[in-house]
Amino acid sequence: MNVNTTPQVPLLDLDLLKTLVAIAETGNFSAAAKVVFRSPSAVSMQIKKMEDMLGRAVFIRDSRSVTLTPDGETLLLHARRVLALNTQIISQFIRPDMAGTVRLGATDHAAEAFLSEALRRFSQTHPCVSVDVTVDHSSELRASVKRGAMDIALVTCQTNDTHNAEILRRENLVWAGMKGGIAVEKTPLPISVWEEGCIWRKTAVDALETQQRDYHVTFKSSHISAQKAGIRADLAIAPLPSSTLGGDVVEIDKSYGLPALPDYAIGMIIAKGVSAPVMAVADHLRATVAPK
User: Fold this and answer.
1) pLDDT (tens digit per residue) in 100-146
2) Does pTM top 0.85 for this prediction?
């Protein structure tokens, strides 16, 4: 008889993941304990159990609050996805007839990169929920949620902006130009960005000004497709997510000495007091948007 001696991978209990998320969202063990209906000591024991299982610390603790370690940040993303998947599975049996309309806003990059596939899959599991999508830039989407005109918004933000948005995925931001183009050699440097509230613009401009590099905004558009058109015409270079590159639009070689750009994030903002269909969409986005 063959005996399987392969070590079994331990399973993370959903209750542990719920506690992790509660601590991350409340900022301390005591507040999280109220959310998950446990005592602070029980919450502390849950986190110790999780850290022992993983062999990694997930929180940095001090006398007043806790913060996630880099490993904890990674675990939080996965925890939200697992919990969202669990909700999706259960909802198909408990609330199969859920119906309603959800107003969803997204940046053009989010719409182009993953939203169509995510919504296609959502419609298969929630056929009675209609999702109305508006594509706009982040500042307008944030304002729409704030004034109650939108239920959910997918916006661009800084990777540490966890207080203003729930981070769904992080991406690399790079300098993009036309393959074999000469725009990058010009002075002042011609760049393509959008309005003042755009995180890509702020990131790029701050980096150039820190480097004391002379630049000029020669091509303005809130849409990546238009920015790519400017790049392909060799009119400008632009800060773009690395995932959008391809064909004649390439990352500019580091030999040109352009300043390095930090990563950015796609975050989700949810209006207060929303309906069950809205939360179903939010859970689905948590489960599907993070890069595989």
Assistant:
1) 999 999 998 888 888 888 898 888 778 789 999 999 988 899 999 99
2) no
Give the burial string for 90-107 (b: 16+ CB within 10 Å, else e).
ebeeeeeebebebbbbbb
Can you tell me which residue has the tokens 């689905």? 284
**Cα 204–Cα 243–Cα 285 angle in degrees, nearest 5:** 105
Neighbours of 173 (CB within 10 A): 20
The span from the first CA to the last CA of the chain, in angstroms, equals 38
How many of the other CB atoms lie within 10 Å of CB of 144?
A: 19
Tokens at 48, concatenated: 């110790």
Cα–Cα nearest to 136, from 214, 197, 223? 223
Which domains occur in the chain, in start order? 14-77 (1.10.10.10), 99-170+265-288 (3.40.190.10), 173-262 (3.40.190.10)
